Amino acid sequence: MNTVKKLNVKICVGTYCYVMGGSKLNNLKSQLPDDLKDEVYVEASVCLGCDKMTSDPKPPYAEVN
Predict the structure, then answer these.
(1) pLDDT digit string, tens, across residues 17-43
(2) What is the largest CA-CA distance in the chain?
(3) Backbone angles phi and psi of 44, in degrees to 5
(4) Which of 4, 24, 40, 57 is the most exposed place for a label (fewest CB within 10 A)?
(5) Are 22 and 60 in contact (CB under 8 A)?
(6) DSSP codes joined into one string, the chain
(7) Cβ count within 10 A of residue 45
(8) Pairing of strands 7-12, 62-64
(9) With 60 as the cut, is the pLDDT of residue 7 above it?
(10) CA distance 54 to 50
(11) How far, in Å, CA of 8 to CA of 6, rounded?
């Protein structure tokens, strides 16, 4: 049995990430080929807290699965 796991993508759209490109990433699903759109779930998040995890933040941030 071959099961396909849905890909979950959480995109930071907090102010810093939004300005640095998060707004474009948030449109990811509309840019996917039709055969992949049902396999990817895209969700916006106000902040993923990634800017606090590194001394050299490079937004925008996203989490996959």
Answers:
(1) 888 888 888 788 888 899 888 899 989
(2) 45
(3) -90, 145
(4) 4
(5) yes
(6) ---PPPEEEEEE-SHHHIIIIIHHHTTHHHHS-HHHHTTEEEEEES---GGGT-SS--S--EEE-
(7) 17
(8) antiparallel
(9) yes
(10) 7
(11) 6
